[in-house]
Amino acid sequence: MLPYWESDTDYMTEEMEPAFNPGIDIRPVTNPMGFIYGEGVFGPQVENRRMDDIRRSLMNPYCEGPEIVYAIAMDVGKNEHRRLLNELHLLYGVVTYAAGKLGREPVRSQGHVHKNSPYSGWSTPEVYEIWSGEAIIYMQETAGDMPGRCYAVHAGAGDVVVVPPYWVHATVSANPAKPLTFGAWCDRDYGFVYDGVRRHNGIAWFPVFNGDDQIEWLANPAYLPSELIVKSPGKYEALGIRRGKSIYALFEEDPETFRYIPKPQSKKEAWINFIP
After folding, report:
1. Residue 26 forms beta bridges with which residues?
2. pLDDT digits (tens, 9 = 90+) for 95-119
3. Which of 61, 89, 95, 100 could form a disulfide with 262 if both were Cys (CB 3.0 to 4.6 A apart)?
4. CA dist 35 to 31, 77, 83, 243, 252, Å?
5. CA dihedral 21, 264, 107, 76 (to 10 degrees)
6. Tens of pLDDT, residues 10-60
7. Contact 44/75 with Cβ under 8 angstroms?
8. What is the rounded CA–CA span in Å between residue 87 and residue 92?
9. How many other C-beta atoms are found inside a 10 Å radius of the C-beta of residue 162?
10. b/e burial code for range 43-67 (CB count within 10 A of at least 16 → b)
11. How far is it, in rounded angstroms, from Cα 89 to Cα 243?
């Protein structure tokens, strides 16, 4: 069987995204939403997040949307790397978002901070890579009343976005006509803290679709006033990212590349005044 980026079969949408090889043979599928693992690839049964799981974080908790909002497969990889991933405390995950809308809002995650990992004692960073669709990685510095700097980073197939330690973040699907699929490197002891975001009824800026299905941003009045910066992804050269090289291929080439994910203090200079 050919990898999905070389196949004539439409696995996700009627019109496939421009060819992008994520460096691992995992094929996103719909009906039901999930993933097919290719030869030599391991992965779990997917977990689904439903509308009722995320209503508390939406601008309109009573809106309508797809019953299954997104499907997650955490801890995937090539069989030959299983032991190494455990030794390095790295975990790779893949996620697919449904097409459609959540009322006026795009399909998105709830917004959270990564818990402090027992392995490092830090809230850990995350490295996203968009496989297909259009994404916005939203970030704010804190979950307190003053959210600090807020960014909306637009990314397409092949783009990489880095979320620094301790920041609130949410992943947004920017095109309601197409599913969104992305992969990410995480700490193996990953966990999510929702308390601060939920106390404010969501993130500091709500993405909404206008009449032309373009994303606009509305300030959440539960926070003190802040400014939102809309931008493209950074280059992240100091964090080992190379344009045109998938993040799994970078790991395969040099397994130490993403050591800073489970051990973020090893790159602590990079997190000072970080601009995503």
Report:
1. 37
2. 999 999 999 999 988 899 999 999 9
3. 89
4. 11, 13, 22, 25, 21
5. 50
6. 444 433 444 589 999 999 988 888 999 999 999 999 999 888 888 877 888
7. yes
8. 14
9. 25
10. beebeebebeebeebbbeeeeebbe
11. 25
